[in-house]
């Protein structure tokens, strides 16, 4: 008997655990900051509704129709499309290779906050910048933390789908929401905080360009964990009576809510300290710690913040790990234990190289980018949209229509009025827009 999640709540929390991650708290605020705050938010919500949600439903339907890992699922439905499953498993492995590195940084900062490290007390931002750089280029510390993170992920995955993954999500997701709300309220109440909320919510359309559209689509896919078959794998564990549409809508709402709350937590703090909101990826590791250090009870706030990040990252690394583990277990007929260890070893090795490429081994470059940045670029800008494109073409044009409909409306329930618009988005809208984005990324249009 193949494992399943306990029920609807479990399915939503586990799937939301995959979706809510560093993408929401680390990546979304800085991408939004670079593209005009509120205007980007509108664009992002449009991408989520018109592309993210239909694609998530597509992946879910492949998972529930086959009850297999990503490769096995495509292979069962149509042998020729197994390649999309392979692309997904490969991308999950590569994303884990750099995601674990950033996750390791969050774990390091969490420990430093707990022990109340004096470095975190400096109110001088250049000191924070220097200590961040010293840390990520350190010869072994970031490797140690990435390895610890990887072992934590391994432990939970090897406890199993229900006993490990679902139990972890049921503890960690409520904690995540609680901490996020505490920090957001605290941040908005800071002197000058409302200005940050205004920046984040008031649209500045002059900053919107074709590039912002690309960024919004990329961010939507990354944030919802779609395009890699992760959602196929998770849906394959849904119980028979779990509605894939309701789950998809709930997960999408939760994921977007976390992204919006993260923006409302970060921008007020940034404005209150009089710092430029466009600081980029270093926002949470440099800007925020320097802001925390000027507050009363700084160690408490930074501990809560970094626990939040570690929890968000962990439920996401678990989902990528699980999709590779499930593939090795079911397709290569390894025991689950051996499959989980193989995944851990392989991804740890990639994480090792990508972390070293930022420090001791800076000569390790691909097309002028460090291995770390190259992996980020390759996966987020090329492999993810490619996976998303093939998935919607497959479900829209090649998957048996009755089978697809059966996943959405089991037991002969009449399709709801949303069915037709959904089919339209999957068959025409998503493939056309994603293809245009591709051509643009490759410099063809
Ligand atoms: N969605 C996660 C985040 O926002 C990252 C992630 C987990 C992911 N699994 C994925 C991204 C699968 C793409 C595909 O941080």
Q: Shape, please?
A: globular
The biggest sheet amounts to: 2 strands, antiparallel
Order of helices and strands: HHHHHHHHHHHHHHHEEHHH
Number of strands: 2
CATH topology: Hydantoin permease
The CATH architecture can be given as Orthogonal Bundle
Unreliable spans are: none
Beta percentage is under 5%
Number of helices: 18
Assembly type:
single chain
Written overview of the protein:
- A hairpin with a 2-residue loop joins strand 1 and strand 2 (369-370).
- This protein has a single domain (8-441), classed as Orthogonal Bundle (Hydantoin permease), CATH 1.10.4160.
- The model has no long low-confidence stretch (mean pLDDT 90).
- The chain is built from 18 helices and two strands.
- Helices cover 74% and strands 1% of the residues.
- It is globular, with a radius of gyration of 21 Å.
- It has a two-stranded antiparallel sheet with strand order 1-2.
- With 445 residues, it is mainly alpha-helical.
- The protein has helices at 8-19, 22-34, 38-66, 70-77, 82-114, 125-136, 141-158, 161-188, 193-201, 210-223, 230-235, 244-272, 287-292, 298-331, 336-356, 371-398, 401-408, 419-441, and strands spanning 365-366, 369-370.
- The site of tryptophan has 16 residues, from helix 1, helix 2, helix 10 and helix 14.
């Amino acid at each position: 008997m193949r494992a399943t999640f306990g029920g609807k709540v479990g399915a939503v929390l586990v799937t939301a655990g995959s979706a809510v991650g560093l993408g929401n708290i680390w990546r979304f605020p800085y991408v939004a900051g670079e593209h005009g705050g509120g205007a980007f938010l509108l664009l992002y919500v449009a991408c989520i509704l018109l592309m993210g949600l239909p694609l998530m439903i597509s992946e879910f339907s492949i998972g529930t129709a086959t009850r297999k890992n990503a490769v096995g699922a495509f292979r069962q439905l149509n042998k020729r499309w197994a390649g999309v499953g392979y692309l997904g498993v490969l991308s999950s492995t590569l994303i884990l290779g750099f995601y674990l590195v950033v996750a390791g940084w969050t774990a390091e900062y969490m420990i430093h906050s707990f022990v109340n490290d004096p470095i975190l007390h400096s109110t001088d931002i250049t000191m924070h910048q220097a200590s961040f750089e010293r840390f990520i280029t350190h010869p072994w510390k970031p490797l140690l933390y990435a390895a610890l993170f990887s072992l934590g992920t391994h432990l939970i995955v090897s406890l199993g789908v229900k006993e490990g993954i679902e139990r972890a999500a049921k503890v960690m997701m409520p904690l995540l929401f609680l901490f996020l709300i505490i920090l957001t309220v605290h941040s908005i109440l800071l002197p000058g905080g409302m200005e940050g909320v205004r920046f984040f919510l008031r649209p500045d359309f002059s900053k919107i360009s074709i590039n912002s559209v690309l960024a919004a689509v990329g961010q939507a896919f990354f944030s919802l964990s779609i395009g890699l078959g992760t959602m196929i794998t998770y849906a394959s564990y849904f119980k028979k009576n779990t509605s894939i549409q309701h789950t998809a809508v709930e997960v999408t709402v939760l994921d977007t809510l976390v992204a919006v709350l993260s923006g409302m937590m970060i921008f007020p703090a940034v404005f209150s300290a009089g710092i430029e909101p466009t600081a980029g990826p270093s926002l949470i590791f440099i800007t925020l710690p320097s802001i925390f250090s000027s507050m009363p009870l700084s160690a408490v706030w930074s501990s809560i913040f970094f626990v939040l990040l570690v929890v968000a990252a962990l439920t996401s690394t678990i989902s990528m790990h699980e999709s590779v583990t499930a593939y090795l277990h079911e397709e290569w007929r390894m025991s689950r234990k051996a499959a989980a260890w193989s995944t851990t070893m392989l991804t740890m090795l990639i994480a090792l190289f990508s972390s070293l490429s930022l420090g001791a081994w800076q000569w390790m470059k691909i097309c002028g980018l460090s291995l770390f940045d190259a992996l980020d670029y390759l996966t987020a800008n090329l492999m993810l949209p490619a996976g998303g494109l093939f998935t919607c073409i497959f479900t829209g044009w090649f998957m048996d229509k009755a089978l697809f409909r059966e996943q959405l409306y089991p037991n002969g329930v009449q399709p709801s009025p949303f069915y037709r618009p959904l089919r339209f988005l999957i068959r025409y809208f998503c493939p056309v827009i994603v293809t245009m984005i591709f051509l643009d990324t490759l410099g063809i249009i």
